[in-house]
Amino acid sequence: MKHSVSYWPFADIPLVDFAEKIAPLGYEGIDLLHPEQAKEIRGTGVCCSVTAAPEHASGLGCIERAFNRIEHHATLHEIYRALIPAAAEAGVQQVICFSGNREGLDDATGLDNCARGLEPLLPLAEEHGIVLLMELLNSKVDHPDYQCDHTAWGAALCEKLGHPHFKLLYDIYHMQIMEGDVIRNIRDYHQHIAHYHTAGNPGRNEIDESQELFYPAIVKAVRETGFEGFFGQEFIPTREPVESLADAIARCS
């Protein structure tokens, strides 16, 4: 298992400086950079572990407006057909994607629509050695109405697509809010999970004793599945950021 950290909660620190500060702690990746940012950290000992699409003029590809709507597919294909080779050229092996919000759409139709939208992109992803990751997010607190908000739904989408270049990003914080039973779900669905995110709940802050999740046990369960991907910290620090990241990796090692 490798360790990474999402940049957005720590973006007050210049990117290259941030990479150079976290590398000695044992972090090997930074999550959710754009491909051009991924190139900036070459030579720091830290890679971009998963990339995201820059904001598009259409507003599509964001959390709220994505693959669960057929009318979005043509533009999303344009976005991802540019992003996938750009990610590969920047040395990134994973690209994030989202379901979009329900807006009255039932879960079965949303799943079918996501599959229809994603399937044409998978040969391109395979050609470039890219895995598309759909992130599981909570719709209770942070992202109201988001469709991919339960592990079973995401796993069903993986099974429908049946392709090794489509997997889930399992966000422990988000799934604790939505369904709990984190360790059981990791054990039951680990074959569909290619990346993890963390944060403390409630609050989305450090993963210490101030919150309810016991990360040493969760990490043990993840390791027992044979997971070899990135385990990414994505908490909002309340203390000195690098010290918080040092504490977090110690709890997850």
From TrEMBL:
Presence of keyword tRNA-binding: no
GO MF annotation, one: isomerase activity
Gene3D superfamilies named in the record: Divalent-metal-dependent TIM barrel enzymes
Keywords from the UniProt entry: Isomerase
Catalytic residue list: 135 (proton donor/acceptor), 234 (proton donor/acceptor)
SUPFAM superfamilies per the UniProt record, alphabetical: Xylose isomerase-like
Protein name per UniProt: Hydroxypyruvate isomerase
Species assigned in the record: Roseibacillus persicicus
